[in-house]
Every structure is written in structure tokens, then in C-alpha cells.
Amino acid sequence: MGGHFDPNFMAVSLPEDRLGVDDLAELDLLLRQRPSGAMPSEIKGLEFYDGLQPGKKHRLSKKLRRKLQMWLWSQTFCPVLYTWNDLGSRFWPRYVKVGSCYSKRSCSVPEGMVCKPAKSVHLTILRWRCQRRGGQRCTWIPIQYPIISECKCSC
């Protein structure tokens, strides 16, 4: 496998840090964390003028505007939850960390949308394969295994 082995997402034996979606403390911590990366332009561009009296110039302070943007971003944030998956003895490495999108709450305001996979990456792993044509021949073959790498709030 050479350079294809990624110890962050692959393991030969079950890792001790196998906490996954079932660990409520980890999940709570994940959902409380501030979203990372650049704030989506849809949120960054919001001025929060809707609902104010027409004709009057209402201007929110930069601080209040930023707090509202951060709150909205945290409500619509779609984290990727990782857990170790046992692929069985026909695969090497046997354990792969797979991603899933947290969808137990709505990620939109107003509610209705949920987090869904938006991007994935592929890991190269080996699968044991036997063919019976002309005698049995067995060999390891490389396969591409998809891993969810990003989730997005959508319908």
C-alpha cells in the first residue's frame, strides 16, 4: 500500500480511541464547537434588515451583527461525525474511520432541512479476492473506499 496508508483513517487492529456517534459526550462537544473554516458568504452577507420598519435606516452594531451571524452559523453547521468501521477479514486494513452527517436536528432556520453528505474522499484499501476459473487463484486487489469528508445543510 505504501503511501496510501493513512493512520488517521486506517487501522490494522481496533483503535482504543474508537469513540463514535454513540458517545454522547463526544457528540455534545462536537455540536457545541464553533464552526471552523471561513464563514459561508450567505451568512456573512446578511444585514438583518428584514422585519424592521420600512423607510427608517436601522443599523445594527458590528458586534450584534457578528453575534447574530455566529449564532446562525452555529445553528446551520453540519459537522462530520467519524466512527471506526470493521470491514472484516477480507479487507486490509480491516478498520476504516468513516464519516456521517449529523441529522438528528434540523440545520436550518426555519426548521426543515437536514445535514447531508456534500463531499467525499477515497481511501485505497486492499480486498482479498479469489477466482475459481482454471484453479483457484487468490490475491489482494486495491479498491477505492469512499469516506464522507464534508456535510452541508440541504433539503
Structure explained in plain terms:
- With 155 residues, the chain is of the alpha+beta class.
- The protein has a single domain, classed as Cystine Knot Cytokines, subunit B.
- The protein contains three helices and six strands, in the order E-H-H-H-E-E-E-E-E.
- It has a three-stranded antiparallel β-sheet with strand order 1-4-2, with no helix packed on it. Strands 3-5-6 form a three-stranded antiparallel β-sheet, with no helix packed on it.
- Strand 5 and strand 6 (137-154) form a beta hairpin.
- It is elongated.
- The mean pLDDT is 83.
SSE inventory with pairings:
Blueprint: E1 10-11, H1 24-32, H2 41-44, H3 62-76, E2 80-86, E3 91-92, E4 95-101, E5 114-131, E6 137-154
Structural descriptors:
155 residues, 6 strands, three-stranded antiparallel β-sheet, Cystine Knot Cytokines, subunit B, 3 helices
CATH H-tier superfamily: Cystine-knot cytokines
- The CATH class name reads Mainly Beta
- Helix- and strand-based class? alpha+beta
Low-pLDDT sequence parts: none
Distance between the termini: 39 Å
Number of helices in the DSSP assignment: 3
CA radius of gyration is 22 Å
Helix content: 10-25%
List the secondary-structure elements in sequence, H or E: EHHHEEEEE
Family: Belongs to the noggin family.
Protein name: NOGG protein
InterPro entries: Cystine-knot_cytokine (IPR029034), Noggin (IPR008717)
Subcellular location: Secreted
Short description:
The chain has about 160 residues and is an alpha+beta fold. The protein is built from three helices and six strands. It comes from Certhia familiaris.
